[in-house]
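Changelog-adjacent note: as of this version, every example in the card shows the full chain rather than a window. The one below runs 592 residues end to end.
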Amino acid sequence: MKRENRVFIEKNFIVIFKAYGKAHLPENALKLFHRMDVEFHCKQTVKSFNSVLNVVIQEGYFNLALEFYSNVVDSKNFNHVHPNGLSFNLLIKALCRLGLVDQAVEVFRGISLRNCVPDNYTYSTLMHGLCNVGRIDEAVSLLDEMQVEGIFPNPVSFNVLISALCKKGDLARASKLVDNMFLKGCVPNEVTYNSLVHGLCLKGKLDKAMSLLNRMVSDKCVPNDVTFGTLIDGFVKNGRALDGVRVLVSLEEKGHCGNKFIYSSLISGLFKEGKYEQGMQLWKEMVEKGCEPNTIVYSALIDGLCREGKTDEAKEYLLEMKKKGHLPNSFTYSSLMWGYFEAGDSHKAIQVWKEMADNNCNHHEVCYSILINGLCKNGKLKEALMVWKQMLSRGIKLDVVAYSSMIHGFCNAQLVEQGMKLFHQMLCHEPKLQPDVVTYNILLNAFCTKNSVSRAIDILNTMLDQGCDPDFITCDIFLKTLRDNMDPPQDGREFLDELVVRLIKRQRTVGASNIIEVMLKKFLLPKPSTWALAVQQLCKPMKLRNSGYRDLLIQILKLRTSDFHRLHFAAKMKVDEDEPVYRIATRCDVQK
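Full-length structure tokens:
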């Protein structure tokens, strides 16, 4: 066209810009935009500008998009390009994707000064950006603002907020927004329902999620793979993988097919719940139905077999997946390596480690942690130290598991002080690398075994100061020491009672509740004063609404033998007579 001196129009270039976008070549689009006027004598307008800006943003080059926007809008060479509403929408999108929400709000507030009016897309984009940084209340206020401005929200606007609230667990406000949708004439779509199903699954309200699925169908909104996948994943995460399988059966009865992600989630869940036969049966059904397993599904199966101690069978499936062209990933190899270590076969575990390197599969921190943990458990402390040094030299981040494993290895080798050095290193690190309850229990057990009870108490004090709650293993370590190593032997009642009081005073109610549960199961009843403190803390109005606390109180009431104490608790609870706690407490013949 140029050689024949044909006249170029902007539409010619916009077609090519779109083609560059489909070909994932945003740099070429930028170069051509700058050549339009000089080389082809075609003036750029806001249409070609928006086309290129959109291509750059779609490819995820947000910083480049901001630079391009600034170069064009602020340049004297492009004074004929005047941004319009779409330009501002794209600019706000780029800023939000970069997390520069305050700047996006500033651009949004300045739109009216440029003789432009925000539309649904503008509001939805900004609301999405605010929700992504946790500023949901500001996003909700924008919904009210747009209605005041006469812009009626569309389903996209509502879905942005509903999704954010559901992820946060605020289902009450999410359901109110759904009601608001209906009032505004917006019909909830599959995105709306999928968000609500996801929120209910996060809360563990799976039966309500199933009911919502039925309502979705009655509202003539067809559930899709995301709906069923979310629901099945919810069942798996809540330890109800068999119910997830029933959902899959229902899905297939309606003409849908389970995808690889659904099968991998279910197979992994069944194995984690110890349902080996059901897991293998599902695998066979998947293969029979023509659903070709990929790396993810194979990895779930291999991990499950290793959990069952069937490492040789897992190895066979690893060879099968490689023959079918599916490359094992770090998770696949890590599962097999862990399985061999658990079976006490460190030689084969190390072979798997070497196989990873031979297949150019990167050793990430989890793989290193499994290797260190396995070597330490098998008494190979020197080898574990070599791996530890290799991690440090390669700049690989050490995680809590790696530190805890090395500390355990030192303690088993009677080198507790070297373990303490690593422990102090952890305390000096960022919050992500702070010792967890497993780390503390390793050191507590080491000092108690050496009969260094005072050192163990120091570790316990550090544990409480660092915000880590003791668990039942912590209790068992001290109870065994007090019973076997003290003269005279102690039952540990006073020790645990004092621990409960310390936790309650620090407002660590969950930790205190766990210790009380241990005491009750071992028939070591807390003092009356401790009961009073515990009940007072547990029965605060906000905590009473939490079903977990209420269930714990029900358990406490059932375990107590004194009817007087039951009535005392019921009076403290100040709950309605239809509450389970009240009914249990008044199930005796003592005058109220």
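Structural remarks: The two ends are 98 Å apart (CA to CA).
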